[in-house]
Design brief:
Layout (H helix, E strand, L loop, with lengths): L1 H11 L2 H26 L3 E5 L4 H14 L4 E3 L4 E5 L3 H10 L10 H5 L8 H21 L4 E9 L13 E9 L7 H14 L3 E10 L13 H31 L4 E10 L4 E24 L41 E20 L4 E11 L2 E3 L7 E3 L3 H15 L8 E6 L21 H32 L21 E4 L2 E4 L3 H14 L1 H16 L1
Parallel strand pairs: 5-6, 10-13
Antiparallel strand pairs: 1-3, 2-3, 4-5, 7-10, 8-9, 11-12, 14-15
Helix pairs in contact: 2-10, 8-9, 11-12
Length: 536
């Protein structure tokens, strides 16, 4: 009986209303099924995002080979995996060196571009290949996630005055929470400078993803000098403090000594040149002597003038006389003798150029705090007692020797005894994970939310639809609710939009006659609807 009523109620509805109700019912069922499947599914977390097509393909192939479920979400190339397998997926990809950059280095040069390539394009490709290869090398440094290198290579010129040096800029993307040490930054700078001809290390600039300058500026820059001085001072102070703590820890106990050192350093740069002579130390450097002698016949004689300078006239050779025994002759004696001597002496000379060392210690101030010493007691539990004055004095002497105490320099060392606050127990358990972060609770919560949504869907959507389908159809004057034809006792007449049940047949006939008399057109329309309904 109820099935017949429901079937007739559906048939009595207009076509558009039937279609809307059926579509709503299908949508509600589909939503319920989706909620059920969603509650049974796993949470997916983002493995990598903002990947190129080549990188995405490599990552997907690696995940498929490892048997890890994955999804591709969004046009940005985001790869998601189940949350419990997120770490495993990242470790497997890291072991394979994925994801890799899709930028081409030397491979770009090896590609055949055919004929017609200009020299400008060849130069640009070569420069891009060098930049990519340098970036790939920098990425191998620990802590660097990605790197980009830009080279400014000037064109070669035949004029010396037009020669310009190459420059380079490097953009580093570091892993979250990582930072590069100054030594690593200097290594990257020299790596780039050594990879490009005519590139000096001072012309390489390195910045990170936050825009912070990592490379040191020019050494002549006052800010750079101040930074190096401050770093040197802090390093020296830390070394002294560490030295004091290492010296006193075996004597007073681990964690029971604290040391602080303040160093006043002199960074004044002084250059001195001196030249000293020692007259007591003489050495003959060079000597030159000259000796000049003149004989008697060589001297000019007579009245000064042209006649005295003329040679004597020739005379005829006389006849040889009768030879007589020769008498003994004496050599002529020099009339004038001249001696000249020139000696050069080299005096001992010392030339010195001294450049005073910077960063010399002007004064040291050392402060040391010692915790109370532990003295064993009868109950096997040590008690805390202050150090004696003699022990403090002995420790003060050790500290002075450790830092190279110099009273003339104005150094100060102070060692005091104070009770330290008790440290936290080393065996305390780590803070427990919040209850709401448990994966099991997340899964049950997801299923509970799905159940609530299904119930709300059933109460808000399905129940009104089923109630509308099972509700009897209503006509303009009445509706048939019984199985037998002509059962007018259960008819309902709608007057002014309301449905009023008539108590008996006579009252219904009287009301019908009154309606026909007052509004014949409406009565004719109702009869026409009855005829059409019975015809179906």
């Amino acid at each position: 009986m109820a099935d017949a009523i429901a079937q007739r109620g559906v048939l009595e509805l207009p076509g558009l209303r039937q279609l809307i109700l059926l579509v709503g019912l299908a949508g509600a069922i589909a939503a319920g099924l989706w909620l059920v499947f969603w509650s049974q599914g796993q949470n997916y977390a983002t493995l990598y995002s903002q990947l190129s097509e080549r990188e995405t393909a490599q990552v997907v192939d690696a995940l498929q080979s490892a048997g890890i479920p994955h999804k591709l979400e969004g046009p940005s190339g985001s790869v998601t995996v189940p949350e419990p397998q997120l770490r495993e997926a990242r470790m497997r990809l890291a072991a394979q060196g994925l994801p890799q950059s899709d930028a081409l280095g030397v491979e770009m040069i090896q590609k055949d571009n055919g004929f017609g390539t200009s020299q400008f394009m060849e130069t640009a490709r070569y420069q891009l290949a060098i930049e990519t290869e340098i970036a790939r090398t920098i990425v191998k440094v620990q802590g660097v996630q990605n790197a980009r290198v830009h080279l400014a290579l000037p064109r070669a010129s035949a004029f010396v005055r037009d020669q310009r040096h190459a420059t380079a800029s490097v953009m580093l993307q570091l892993y979250s929470g990582r930072r590069l040490e100054p030594g690593h930054v200097a290594g990257i700078v020299h790596l780039v400078a050594s990879s490009v001809p005519d590139l000096d290390a001072s012309d390489v600039t390195i910045v990170d993803q936050n825009g912070s300058l990592l490379s040191s500026p020019d050494g002549n820059d006052p800010l750079a000098v101040s930074g190096h001085q401050l770093e040197y001072t802090r390093t020296l102070e830390d070394n002294y403090s560490h030295r004091i703590e290492e010296l006193l820890t075996p004597l007073v106990g681990d964690g029971r000594v604290r040391a602080g050192v303040t160093a006043d350093l002199d960074f004044t740069m002084t250059e001195q040149s001196s030249e000293n002579y020692d007259p007591q130390k003489q050495v003959v450097r060079s000597e030159q002597t000259a000796n000049d002698q003149r004989m008697a016949g060589d001297l000019a004689m007579g009245i000064p003038g042209a006649l005295s300078n003329q040679p004597p006239a020739t005379s005829p050779v006389p006849a040889a006389p009768k030879q007589q025994p020769a008498a003994a002759t004496t050599p002529p004696q020099p009339v004038a003798t001249t001696n000249r001597a020139t000696r050069n002496y080299e005096i001992d000379r010392t030339v010195s150029h001294v450049r005073q060392a910077t960063g010399t210690i002007k004064r040291l101030s050392v402060a040391v705090i010692l915790d109370n010493k532990l003295v064993p007691s009868a109950d096997a539990k040590p008690t805390s007692e202050p150090w004696s004055a003699q022990e403090i004095e002995r420790y003060t002497g050790l500290v002075k020797e450790a830092v190279g105490f110099d009273e003339k320099r104005g150094d100060r060392v102070q060692v005091i005894n104070a009770s330290f606050s008790p440290p936290a127990a080393a065996g305390d358990p780590a803070p427990a994970e919040p209850w709401y972060a448990s994966p099991t609770l997340k899964q049950f919560g997801r299923q509970g939310i799905a159940v609530l949504l299904v119930l709300a869907l059933a109460l808000v959507v399905l129940r009104p639809i089923m109630k509308t389908l099972l509700q009897p159809a209503r006509g303009g004057l009445g509706a048939l609710t019984g199985g037998a034809a002509g059962d007018l006792a259960r008819d309902k007449v709608t007057l002014s939009g309301g449905a009023t049940p008539l108590p008996n047949y006579e009252a219904q006939v009287a009301a019908a006659r009154s309606l026909v008399t007052q509004d014949p057109k409406r009565a004719a329309q109702i009869v026409k609807e009855w005829v059409s309904t019975d015809g179906r």
